Amino acid sequence: MSRILLGIGLAVALLVQSGCGSSANRAPVDTPPADELMDEILYADDPKPRGTVWDIFRARKDQGQIGAVNKYIWNASLDTLDFLPIQTVDPFTGVIVTGFGTPPGGGRAYRATIHVNDPALDARSLNVALMTKSGPASAATVRAIEDAILTRARQLRAQDSRL
């Protein structure tokens, strides 16, 4: 008998709780379209530029950018450290955070945080922080990773310029 009453009580509680979440009395949220939100972000200080037929003759912006970072360094970082599991990426701030992973043929696990902070294809645009499970990685290892990323970035740019 107590099991039946417990079952009925549980069913009534679930019915009452399901009624609490109904959206019948909620007012709809007026959200602007995504393109309007992006225009507000991109052109907050300046008016939105208008396009004309003559725009095809104007100089174009650097196509090597993703948001505010250099696309070649960004992609080279992902290519070079592809053995590390990606935890978070944000191309607008230029931050890539990875989990621990072991390089091919290596015995020590590393974790990396990469910050691409400039749209220029330059060594100053790249900051790499490497950690091992026992603490920070050596400066020589960090320098070697930075060199590998920058070399791969130059290779990617050379491939794009041939097209």
Question: What keyword list fits this structure?
Answer:
163 residues, 4 helices, flat, two-stranded antiparallel ribbon, five-stranded antiparallel sheet, alpha+beta
Distance separating the two termini: 79 Å
Strand order of the largest sheet: 3-4-5-6-7
Low-confidence blocks of residues? none
Mean pLDDT: 80
The largest β sheet comes out as: 5 strands, antiparallel
Shape: flat
Report strand %. Answer: 15-25%
Question: What's the tally of helices?
Answer: 4
Derived structural class: alpha+beta
N-to-C order of helices and strands: HHEEHEEEEEH
Structure description:
- By secondary structure, this protein is an alpha+beta fold.
- It has four helices and seven strands; from the N terminus they run ααββαβββββα.
- The chain has helices at 2-20, 34-42, 71-80, 139-162; strands spanning 65-66, 69-70, 86-90, 95-98, 110-116, 126-132, 135-136.
- The strands form two sheets. It has a five-stranded antiparallel beta sheet, with helices on one face.
- Strand 6 (126-132) and strand 7 form a beta hairpin.
Topology:
Blueprint: H1 2-20, H2 34-42, E1 65-66, E2 69-70, H3 71-80, E3 86-90, E4 95-98, E5 110-116, E6 126-132, E7 135-136, H4 139-162
Antiparallel strand pairs: 1-2, 3-4, 4-5, 5-6, 6-7
Helix pairs in contact: 3-4
How do you describe this structure in short?
With 163 residues, the protein is α+β, with helices and mostly antiparallel strands. The chain contains four helices and seven strands. The protein has helices at 2-20, 34-42, 71-80, 139-162; strands spanning 65-66, 69-70, 86-90, 95-98, 110-116, 126-132, 135-136.
